[in-house]
């Protein structure tokens, strides 16, 4: 299992709609946070080791309604 974070820039006034849609419809989205700065949301996603990150982001995140832009961060190790 690998973890990625996808930061999402939404159409004005649509961040809550995008967050709800992501949590309800995208299986690999674990958590969605509203954030400050250039992006509106940060999605924590758990993907299978053999799952292609580019296809996941392009086909399951960027196709959600009211998204203007995304920025994907790939993680290497979790410390705890």
Features:
4-stranded antiparallel sheet; 2 helices; single chain; 80 residues; 25% helix; alpha+beta
**Proportion of β residues?**
35-45%
Largest sheet: 4 strands, antiparallel
Low-confidence stretches: none
Specify Rg, calculated over alpha carbons.
12 Å
The multimeric state of the shown protein is: single chain
Kindly, what is the distance between the CA atoms of the first and last residues, rounded to a whole number of angstroms? Answer: 17 Å
Fold and architecture overview:
With 80 residues, the chain is an alpha+beta fold. 25% of the residues lie in helices and 38% in strands. The protein contains two helices and four strands. It has a four-stranded antiparallel beta sheet with strand order 2-3-1-4, with helices on one face. A hairpin with a 6-residue loop joins strand 2 (29-34) and strand 3 (41-47).
């Amino acid at each position: 299992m690998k973890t990625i974070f996808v930061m999402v820039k939404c159409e004005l006034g649509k961040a809550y709609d995008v967050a709800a849609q992501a949590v309800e419809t995208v299986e690999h989205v674990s958590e969605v946070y509203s954030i400050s700065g250039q992006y509106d949301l940060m999605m924590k996603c758990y993907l299978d080791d053999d799952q292609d990150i580019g296809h996941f982001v392009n086909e399951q995140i960027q196709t959600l309604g009211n998204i203007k832009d995304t920025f994907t961060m790939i993680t290497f190790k979790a410390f705890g």
